[in-house]
Amino acid sequence: MNTDTIPAVFTPDNEPYLGRHPLYVLDTLIASVLELNTKIAPRSHTGNLSDRQSMASQVIPQAISISLSIRELIRQGYLFGGHVLVRSLAERATILLYLYHYPEKIEIWNRGWKYRDAPSLAKMFEALQRNRTSDSEVIPGGKLTASMNSLLHAKPESAPWNLIYSNEGGLAHAPSKILERPDLCDDLCANTIPWLAVVPAMMNFYFSDESSTKVEKDRKPN
Q1: Domain boundaries in the chain?
Q2: pLDDT: is 219 or 36 the higher one?
Q3: pLDDT > 70? residue 222
Q4: pTM score, two decimals?
Q5: pLDDT tens digits, residue range 140-166?
Q6: How distant, in Å, are the alpha carbons of 71, 104, 163, 219 from that of 214?
């Protein structure tokens, strides 16, 4: 791509990966989540929330905000930054799932979800698997978080995620926009979609009329 023709800021009409099917799926999901949020969010503003509802009223908006950040980074071609954010989204979605399946663990959240007290992302992955499978079938959490951790902590394995062809024809690591790697865009969308899809399910669990009684038992005393 001729760098002289690259706009400083892309818009929805000229963004570099417009038309990619995984991006269309992500956009459709984002629109659905935002629409549901307008209906669910007022129920978190009552001031009479259970411990788990208080947690969800913080974590759900954060997850949505991170998803929107990833989407904007895709629009502007900053794919590497988007990939780094996936772990932050995954962690929030997993906390929502973990405290759904293990409601007694809300006490750890109430204590501040502190390091060495709260389960790591890898441990939560393992606990969620045990909820559905036998121990012999549990995939070690470290294997499931390895790719995300390599991006977050700048490990050597993160190198492919910002590779581009240089003007000289060789490979280089992009310090800015990545505009000609549709495979990286597709991969970023594919890694974002499952975690974002958790959010509306958790909205319904923590705040829908049908589910409110399920979290009533851990309601804070007045």
Answers
A1: 18-148+182-217
A2: 36
A3: no
A4: 0.90
A5: 999 999 999 999 999 999 999 999 988
A6: 33, 13, 48, 10
Q: What is the pLDDT of residues 165-202, one digit of tens each?
A: 887 778 999 999 999 999 999 999 999 999 999 999 99
What is the rounded CA–CA span in Å between residue 137 and residue 10? 46
d(CA 90, CA 104): 21
- The runs of H, that is alpha helices, within the chain are 21-40, 51-76, 79-101, 106-110, 121-130, 141-152, 182-207, 212-215
Q: How confident is the model at residue 38 (pLDDT cuts 50, 70, 90)?
A: very high
Spell out the long-range contacts of 200-206 with Cβ–Cβ below 8 A and sequence spacing 24 or more: 200/32, 200/33, 200/36, 202/56, 202/60, 202/93, 202/96, 202/97, 202/100, 203/36, 203/37, 203/40, 203/56, 203/60, 204/36, 204/40, 205/100, 206/52, 206/53, 206/56, 206/60, 206/96, 206/100
The residue whose two tokens read 């929805």 is 12
Distance CA 138, CA 136 (A): 6
Q: Which residues of 49-59 are buried (b: 16+ CB within 10 A; e: fewer)?
A: bbbbbbbbbeb
Q: Classify the phi-psi angles of 69: left when phi > 0, otherwise alpha if psi is within -120 to 50, otherwise beta.
A: alpha
At 111, list the tokens: 């204590």
